[in-house]
Amino acid sequence: MSKTWSVEEHLEDILRSVRPLDPIELNLLDAQGCTLVDDVIVPAALPPFDNSSMDGYAVRTADVEGASEEFPAVLSVIGDIAAGSSDLLTVASGEAARIMTGAPLPPGAEAVVPVEWTDGGTGGGPADSMAALSDSPQGASGQVRVHRPVLSRQHVRAKGSDVKPGTVALKAGTVLGPAQVGLLAAIGRGTVTVRPRPRVVVLSTGSELVTPGEPLGPGQIHDANSFVLTAAARAAGAIPYRVGAVADDAETLRATIEDQLIRADLVVTSGGVSVGAYDVVKEALSRVDAFRGGEEEDRTDAAGDLVEFRRLAMQPGKPQGFGLIGPDRTPILTLPGNPVSAYVSFELFVRPALRTLMGQEPVRRRTVRARLSGDAALTSPEGKRQFLRGDYTPSGEEDDMGSVRAVGGAGSHLIAALAQANALIDIPEKTGRLTPGDEVTVVLLD
Predict the structure, then answer these.
(1) DSSP state, 37?
(2) Of 5, 59, 255, 323, which one's alpha carbon is 20 to 30 angstroms from that of 288?
C-alpha cells in the first residue's frame, strides 16, 4: 500500500523543487506586482529643492509680522514663480512674489502666505483663490495686502523632507504596488530589477465540463474550476492563462499540456487524479516519457518527467499530484476535481509555490487563533487534517481573540459556501470533535 502523505510533507516536497524565477529588468509599469531583487537607494533628495506647499505669496517673515485684516501688511508684488520655474526672482524687504504649489522658494523669501490670508492683489477682502494669469495678468504685479503673519519656513516643503540621498527607498523583497511605482518614478528610476510575475497555465479536465454561458446537455456541468483557479492565480500575483476544459482523453491532455509549456512557469490542472477509470491526468502524466519524444537513448533524465500522484491525510483534497515536466523542468500541480477541493488545494500548495517563484515571503497564508462560534459541534474524520470553510470576525481588541464560524458543510462539492468564506478552519488530524468556544487555528484568505 502506498504511503499517505501529510499536508506538510507534500508542501515541503513542492517547495524543495521550486526556485525563484531569474531576475529581469523591467520598465516601471511593467514591474507592478513584481518583487524587488535589490535595495533601491535614493540618488538625490526628494523634493530636490525647497518648494511651496500652497498657492500664495513668498515673503520675508519680518514684513508680515503683526499683520491683520484691520492692519494688513502691504507688499509690492514683483512677479510670478510657477512650478518648473528656473530663473527665480529675489524677494527683498517689502516685496512678495506670487508663488504656486510646488514652485521653488525664491532667494530672500522665508515663508509662504496662502492666498486665502491675503486680498489676492484685488484691494478688497480675503481672497478665495488666485485668478488665472490669462484672465488677470496684472495679478503678477501691483500690491498685495497680507492679513496674517507667518512663521519662518511655514508652508515650505524642505529639500529632502520626503527622502534623503543615500537612504533606502525600498528594500529587496518589496512587492511593487502603485505607491511603490510612484516612489521609484519620483526618485528618477525608469527601470528596476525584479523577479517577474510567474506565468501559470490553468486547465481542468472532464468531458462533462461546459464553458459558462453555454447551455448544458444531459450529464453536463459548467466548468467552475478553471475559473476559480485562474482567479486565485491572478489574486496571488501571477499572470494566468486559462486553457479551459480538456476532454477525458490522455493523448489530448498530454498534447495540450505540451503545447502550453512554452508559456508556463507553472502548470495547474484540476480533476482526473483519483482512482477512477476515467482519471486521465494520472494516465497522461504517470508515464516517464510523457514530455520527452524519441527513443530512450536520445533522452536524458527521463525519470524526471514522472509526476507523482499521492494520497494526502487531508479533507478535502486527498488526491494530489506534483512533478517537474518538460525541458525546462516546469512544476506541475495536479489538483482534485471537486471545486472546494481544488480551491483549498490551491491555497495550501499552489499559492506557496507561486510566492516562492516570485521570491516573496512568507509563502504561506497568515494564520490566527480564534474561538469557534455557532450552535453545533464540529466533527472531523480521524487521521485527516480537515479544512472547513469559515467566516472569521476579528475581535477589535488588540489582546482578544476573534471568532470563526463554519459555513456550509464538509462536502467538497459545496461551492456556494466557499463564496461566503474568508478563512479556512484548520482542524488537526487527531482532533475529532470541536464545540463552540474551543480555540482553533484559522487560515486567513483575505
Answers:
(1) S
(2) 5
Residue 139: other Cβ atoms inside 10 A: 20
- Contacts of residue 18, defined as CB under 8 A and 6 or more positions apart, other chains included, come to 266, 331, 353, 356, 357
The three grid cell numbers given for residue 196, joined into one nine-digit string: 517577474
Q: What is the pLDDT of residues 337-388, one digit of tens each?
A: 999 999 999 999 999 999 999 999 999 999 999 999 998 899 999 899 999 9
C-beta separation of 247 from 284 below 8 A: no
- Could you tell me the strand order of the sheet in which 111-114 lies? 111-114, 56-59, 95-99, 73-81, 143-146
- Backbone φ/ψ region at 120: left (φ over 0), alpha (ψ -120 to 50), beta: left
50, 58 Cβ separation under 8 angstroms: no
3-state secondary structure of 31: helix
Give the whole-angstrom CA distance, residue 290 versus residue 276: 20
* C-beta separation of 385 from 314 below 8 A: yes
The cell 492683489 sits on which residue? Answer: 121
What the block records as the C-alpha cell of 327 is 525541458
The three cell numbers locating residue 367: 494564520
Helices (H), 301-386: 339-345, 351-358
Three-state SS at 92? coil
**Which residues are within 8 A (CB) of 374 and not within 5 positions of it... i.e. 6 or more apart?**
405, 406, 436
Q: Where are the beta strands (DSSP E) in 12-138?
A: 24-27, 35-36, 40-41, 51-52, 56-59, 73-81, 95-99, 111-114
* Model confidence pLDDT, tens digit, residues 300-346: 343 446 789 999 999 999 999 999 999 999 999 999 999 999 999 99
Residue 443 amino acid letter: V
E strands, 56-114, in order: 56-59, 73-81, 95-99, 111-114
The C-alpha cell of 398 is what? 488588540
| Cα atoms found within 13 Å of the Cα of residue 186, Cβ hemisphere only | 18
Distance CA 360, CA 354 (A): 9
- Long-range (24+ apart) CB contacts under 8 A made by 305-308 are 307/332, 307/334
> Which DSSP state fits 430?
T
> 3-state SS of 273-297?
CCCCCCCHHHHHHCCCCCCCCCCHH
Global pTM? Answer: 0.84
Name residue, grid cell 484540476.
270
- Bridge partners of 25? 193
Distance CA 103, CA 29 (A): 27
How, if at all, do strands 24-27 and 191-195 pair? Answer: antiparallel
